[in-house]
Amino acid sequence: MTEQKPIHYFVCSVGSGSLHLDNRTEENTIVEYFDSEDVVDLAKFAEIVKSKPNCVQKHFIVCEGTEYCAVETDNVENTYIFSSRLKYRFVPKLAAGTATIDMFIEKDKLLGDRATKLDGQSGFKLCDTNGEIIPDGKEFAIQILRDSEDKLDEEYEEETEGLSEEELLF
């Protein structure tokens, strides 16, 4: 197995707690911090990345709090904003070169188109365990049991370790 080059993160010092360097997504990274008062200069960040040949050259990540932005080094206007929840799927693919920012933008468009087509037309109504319809906008919680076992979803979160990229692609 070939070792991947590290991906470069530029992290706002205020949001520095959002990186967890003990997980597989962020263990192979170069991290540089900037102050919250600093103007985020993507062109300057791109030049810094280009000056470091031992890291991923095509993309870098800007992190401000829980919001991440992937930026194409050669075209800093080509960006993709994603949440900390999606970084575990997105960043490894970006670092490995198996996905590009454009691929994720296109996937978002397709998902958005599907949601627009289905919005309000499906006739789907969410019901509680008594068969009562849950009104739109009302908060609720769902517990899903797996198979015949009495385990909740939270107990299966670790199952994503080792899944193929196709299985993890959203």
Keywords:
170 residues, alpha/beta, Rossmann fold, 5-stranded mixed beta sheet, 4 helices, 19% strand, elongated
> Count the helices. How many?
4
**Rounded mean pLDDT score:** 76
The class by helix and strand makeup works out as alpha/beta
Trace the largest sheet across and list its strands.
2-1-3-4-5
* Strand residue content: 15-25%
CATH topology name: Rossmann fold
Distance between the termini: 25 Å
What summary fits the major beta sheet?
Answer: 5 strands, mixed
Per CATH, which architecture? 3-Layer(aba) Sandwich
Give an account of the 3D structure:
With 170 residues, the chain is α/β, with parallel strands linked by helices. The protein has one domain (1-148): Rossmann fold (3-Layer(aba) Sandwich), CATH 3.40.50. The protein contains four helices and five strands, in the order ββαβββααα. The protein has a five-stranded mixed β-sheet. It starts with 6 loop residues before the first strand and ends with a helix. The mean pLDDT is 76.
In short:
The chain has 170 residues and is an alpha/beta fold.
Give a topology summary.
Elements: E1 7-12, E2 29-34, H1 42-50, E3 59-64, E4 67-72, E5 75-83, H2 87-96, H3 101-118, H4 165-168
Parallel strand pairs: 1-2, 1-3
Antiparallel strand pairs: 3-4, 4-5
